[in-house]
Amino acid sequence: MGNTAKLVLDGKELQLPVVVGSEGEVGIDISKLRPQTGAITLDPSFANTGACESAITFIDGENGILRYRGYDIADLANHATFPEVCHLLIYGRLPTRPEREEFRMRLTMHSLVHEDMKKFFEGFAPSAHPMVILSAMIASLSAYYPEQETQEEIDLNIIRLLAKAKTLAAFSYKKSIGQPFIYPDNERTYLENFLLMMFGVPCETYEVNPVVRSALNKLLILHADHEQNCSTTTVRTVGSGGANLFASVSAGVCALWGPLHGGANQAVIEMLEVIRKDGSNFQKYVDLTKSKDQDFKLMGFGHRVYKNFDPRARILKEAADEVLADLGVDDPLLDIAKRLEEVALADSFFIERNLYPNVDFYSGVLYRAIGIPTDMFTVMFALGRLPGWIAHWLEQRNTPGTRISRPRQIYSGEQARAWVPLEER
Ligand code: SDX
Question: Percent of the chain beyond pLDDT 90?
Fold first, then answer.
């Protein structure tokens, strides 16, 4: 591969530098294009455009490879703890034993939220979706922790965000069911505390089911990062303007909420319920996706990057079988999901478009099995994605020469025209 690409425009020849990544990915650097030609490139939804160089996550969409800081997702899902993966993504390496204990202790000691923040929950409608609460409460953390100049202050805010987001998420669930908030217990681990705050009640001792804890650990790790997806791009964009960590991540929560992105896990379960109530008529819904006059998509299928399979979906499908068997849960939606996958993957429409199950297709069945309510599914995605958002915000902040994100456009509107007085319009 040469180190330049030749562009010929209006008879003028331009040599553009070529960047090759550590895994051989090739990018044409067009950062000097407009000053030298007056032209820009046009790539709606940025499907062919790299926004940055990043050392955090590598995805090979053609071969179904996903690695966090070089570690394969299957190894991490099977052997790591979620706090270890948080440390890996944010600081670039797995913690030593002392570092792991210190990181965990700091997460534990910052699990509480300021008592005044509890009053915020009284202002939300009982029917408020927990994603709007999570986004608002994460942004509100910047009202209590405004400092973010020194690395020490930033590291502390990272701990605060990781530790308090799960508390705020659990509080939003308790609010939705009218139960009292449960406080974290410093003797419990990160995940055990989340489960306690979600499912514990004041009048009982809450015992964590190890199968549930292990499934939750795997779910959060599988969602922890995914390079420049919609919500991470949002976090980087907001952070590029100098906005603080809490504001940038709050914007990421909103971006994740969309049904084409993290909101898909909730939409998948709702879709499977519809199919179940419709006599599990799979072919009817596969055919619906093919009809041009219907805007119906099989939620949980397809991906911008994976054109073979999403490794996370494979891991989650296996985990769903294991966890439901261990818990003695018989969820008809799992069988429906498997049959739907079979029917879809035998259909030329899906084969031609490389549409396979993505991370959201099986995750909802697992969340249901461990007791998470459907409207909390995307909150769970957000809790998993927190370390990824934080890592990208920090990487961008620490990259010399980073400029505010500000794409250009091709104007397609009216040309200059004279003012028209009201009586002449
Ligand atoms: C996530 O980017 C990430 O990394 C995201 C994520 C992460 O970890 O951050 O992986 C998490 O968001 C997973 C995706 C969750 N969303 C869904 O499951 C919603 C359903 N999927 C689609 O909306 C779609 O596949 C996307 C949004 C995932 C990808 O959209 P693209 O890349 O813009 O693809 P496209 O819409 O251009 O589709 C290409 C073709 C089209 O058909 P034609 O116009 O060529 O005839 O495939 C069709 C689409 O209509 N298609 C589908 C489909 N997905 C794409 N048809 C039916 N059902 C689907 N699910």
Answer: 97
- Is 30 within the bounds of a domain? yes
- Structural domain includes residue 329: no
* Helix/strand/coil for 315: helix
> What pLDDT is recorded for position 1?
66
Check: CB of residue 312 under 8 Å from CB of residue 359. Answer: yes
Exposure letters 18-33 (e unless 16+ CB within 10 A, then b)? eeeeeeeeeeeebeeb
Q: What does the pLDDT look like over 269-316, one tens digit per residue?
A: 999 999 999 999 999 999 999 988 888 999 999 999 999 899 999 999
* Ligand 1 lined by 274 (C-beta under 6 Å): no
The total domain count for the chain is 1
Predicted TM-score of the model (pTM): 0.97
Closest C-alpha residue for ligand 1 atom 5: 229
* Ligand 1 proximity of 226 Cβ (cutoff 6 Å): yes
- Report CA(260)–ligand 1 centroid distance (Å): 7
Residue 383 in any domain: the answer is: no
| CB of 355 sitting under 6 A from ligand 1 | yes
- Domain span at 25: 4-50
Q: How far apart are the first and last CA of the chain?
A: 59
Active centre residues (catalytic):
303, 360
The answer to whether residue 26 is domain-embedded is yes
